[in-house]
Amino acid sequence: MTLELTPTPLPTQAPTRPGHGDAFTDHMVTLAWNPVDGWHDRRVGPLTALPLHPATIGLHYAQVIFEGLKAHRQVDGSVAVFRPDRNATRFRASARRLEMPELPEELFLAAVDDLVGLDQHLLSDDPDLSIYLRPLMFATEPNLMLRPSGEYLFLLMAFVAGGFFGTDPFAPVSVLVGRTHTRAVPGGTGDVKCAANYGPSFVAQRLAREAGCQQVVWLDALERRWIEEMGGMNMFFVRQGASGPEVVTPALTGTLLPGVTRDSLLTLAAGLGYPVSEERVSVDQWREESLSGRITETFACGTAAVVTPVGRVHDTDGHWLIGNGTPGPVTTALRKALVDVQHGRTPAPEGWLRPIPPR
Question: Which positions does the record annotate as the modified residue N6-(pyridoxal phosphate)lysine (predicted)?
């Protein structure tokens, strides 16, 4: 497939203290699909607005999927992307679930190489900053028949990212147990990364803010007792076992997103000598074991937030601290292990880092 490359004529300057989601880089990658040509018209050009027909199917029927992954500055000054092959695989799974064409993994990775190669000069050597990559695919056919689209557009854009929860990337957050809304249902789309999963969560996030919390903790849809996720992040618990701390995360039941960071932390925790397990954890168990001292730490993880400690939990029948409300030693060790691998300070498992030279 040929590539049309149009570098931006006016490169931007690297932001000094970006937040999350608005310090966009200069370029984007686009790739179109239709049933006759398949994937075609691959372009890399300046980040720009898209012309859309008002009947674009993706706007009406939510045939929209996306991913999130990061590029980090390495200790030797180079840049590498963290586990993009896993995001490429999950992107294909999301496409299958929404009856969309699957983007071959080699095209996904080529887009990552193109964009990071062109825009990595915007990433400083500040270890708290990264380039957050947002692959997106949506239905573009102008037709309001209730059916899958016959045309799609893949695009990749990026921004320089700072802290997801503010200037302190490791400050503990307070969370509200979500009792009135559900994120995902069995047989639904909870285990894929589609746009329709996120808009309905905003009202629960508002309720959390009104309760003085930064995030909502989702429970299962059927029994309303099993912990699933925190906002858009996977959750972990540190439990005191017979021989020391154990790391526990809710099992993947089909309603949780199989996070790349989640998978990475399970591997790193085992490598640090912590027993790891995937099991269902109820909110009552969380409360009781936190109050008894058996659960000493809780944290959430994701591409955007990395590892975020939970300090306090708010529920309808009371509140409780996790440990003493500060980041615990296991959470701290796991975050350090992850960040050190991402930045090349410690050796990464095979295939976890994709080095990308500048262009």
Answer: 193
